[in-house]
Automatic annotation (TrEMBL):
It comes from Caminibacter mediatlanticus TB-2. The keyword GTP-binding applies. GO terms for biological process: GDP-mannose biosynthetic process; polysaccharide biosynthetic process. Belongs to the mannose-6-phosphate isomerase type 2 family. Residues 3-277 form the Nucleotidyl transferase domain. It comes from the Bacteria. This is mannose-1-phosphate guanylyltransferase.
């Protein structure tokens, strides 16, 4: 069985701790592991292989976190733009043997891996072997409005037929669902044979099937499968729920009495984070006076003090501050839409920006200058490039740097430096075994990231 982990998405409902460049599934909330890493750990007991479907920006973050967990031999399918889950799962199905069982899971759910989870997977696997498309319905413990629901009928033990799928309800409808007793949270997890899914997709969404098949056949295949952008844009944007699940006649639902949490917004995050005796989320830098039931999130050295406030969400980052009411966390997604028009960079990036070769952190900037800490992973190098509007000073903090500066190539060690004049062709590489850290001081009239002319690039970026 192959665990297909759907790893795209921008995590807008957890902005500003989640950005397009570093979405929520890669944030290390729990035991210094990300939700993506916890998914790997949890499902490694049941799947022999992992197939990660991701976008280009997140591929290298996922790769680093896979290596941390010892799963570096996992396979990847890279999508240049998102076209929802129907196509992503089709790519996975095209990439394996037709009889391979695929266990489809999101990368951002929190699930307790206990005996009930194991039992749910075992029952799902039996149904999948018999040619069914299987979905997992979580036994609800409260009327949640942030989840979709499944209405199940004719249950035998833990295996049920499905009467219908329901959209996220209002609170009144959600309470009716709970009282009815036949409604379950839609977990977004599925299991089936690859060929079974493709046959159902071809039957109920033939245009998605054909466009996905063409895109997969035309994809660049090597270290990973990279779908071409033009082919991806030809695919209709549709979820597996709309394309297949609401139409198929061969669906089974596994009644899953598991501890499951879709950490999709700050209200959900509040539920899973540890709290003090007053219901405030624990934070070493937080002083809470006469305040209860607040989510206060900040990972920096800044002292945070709250006084006489209750039921708030306060999220502090170096580049953005969010203050809103608990219970209104779903509205953060609408806030992000507005910010995309007014200040798109604050949606895309935090202070730390991840790149295929490593990452950089903006330390300070002002009129005509910017200071960064650059970390280059072992064996990686930046593109061969030049800038029209800035010069750069590099000082090595730790590790070994191999530098191309014009027609010169040389090695720099800690406390050694070089100057890159404006317009000079240059490159930075880490030939060593430990991360290379340098402080870069940029000086010029224009210091944005689009002042990069790439001459040669290991990662095939423009």
């Amino acid at each position: 069985m192959t665990n297909v982990i759907l790893c795209g998405g921008s995590g807008t409902r957890l902005w500003p701790i989640s950005r397009e460049n570093l979405p929520k599934q890669f944030l290390k909330f729990i035991d210094n592991k990300s939700l993506f890493q916890l998914t790997l750990k949890r499902n490694s007991e049941y799947s022999k292989d992992f197939l990660i479907v991701s976008n280009e920006n997140q591929y290298f973050i996922a790769l680093d976190q896979l290596e941390e967990m010892g799963f570096s031999d996992s396979k990847f399918i890279i999508e240049p733009v998102g076209r929802n889950t129907a196509a992503s799962i089709a790519f996975a199905a095209f990439s394996v043997d037709k009889d391979e069982i695929l266990f489809i899971t999101p990368s951002d759910h929190l699930i307790e891996n206990d005996e009930n989870y194991k039992k749910a997977i075992e029952n799902a696997k039996k149904c999948a072997k018999d040619g069914y498309i299987v979905t997992f319905g979580v036994v609800p413990n409260s009327p949640k409005t942030g989840y979709g629901y499944i209405k199940a009928i004719s249950c035998k033990d833990l295996i049920c037929d499905v009467e219908s799928f329901k959209e996220k309800p209002d609170i009144k409808t959600a309470k009716k669902y709970i009282e009815d007793g036949n409604y379950y949270w839609n977990s977004g997890m599925f299991m089936f044979k690859a060929e079974v899914y493709l046959n159902e997709l071809k039957k109920y969404a033939p245009d998605i099937y054909e466009a996905s098949k063409k895109a997969y056949e035309n994809a660049k295949k090597g270290e990973f499968v990279r779908i071409k952008k033009d082919d991806m844009l030809e695919i209709r944007d549709e979820s597996i729920d709309y394309a297949v699940m609401e139409h198929s006649k061969i669906i089974k639902m596994i009644k899953s009495n598991i501890k499951w949490q879709d950490v999709g917004d700050f209200d959900a995050l509040y539920e899973v984070l540890p709290k003090d005796e007053n219901g405030n989320t624990k934070n070493d830098k937080l002083l809470a006076l006469n305040s209860k039931n607040n989510l206060v999130f900040g990972r920096y050295k800044k002292q945070i003090v709250i006084n006489d406030i209750n039921d708030l969400i306060i999220v502090d980052t170096p580049t953005a501050l969010l203050v809103t009411k608990r219970g209104d966390a779903q509205k953060v997604k609408e806030i992000v839409k507005i910010l995309k028009e007014k200040n798109p960079d604050v949606v895309k990036f935090g202070r730390t920006v991840y790149r295929p070769w490593g990452k950089y952190t903006n330390i300070e900037e002002g009129d005509g200058y910017k200071v960064k800490l650059i970390v280059v992973n072992p064996g990686k190098r930046l593109s061969l490039q030049k800038h029209f509007h800035r010069s750069e000073h590099w000082v090595v903090v730790s590790g070994t740097a191999k530098v191309i500066n014009g027609d010169k190539e040389f090695i720099l060690r800690p406390n050694e430096s070089t100057y890159i004049p404006m317009g000079e062709i240059h490159r930075l590489e880490n030939p060593g075994k430990i991360p290379l850290k340098i402080v870069e001081v940029q000086v010029g009239e224009y210091l944005e990231e689009d002042d990069i002319v790439r001459i040669e690039d290991d990662f095939e970026r423009d």
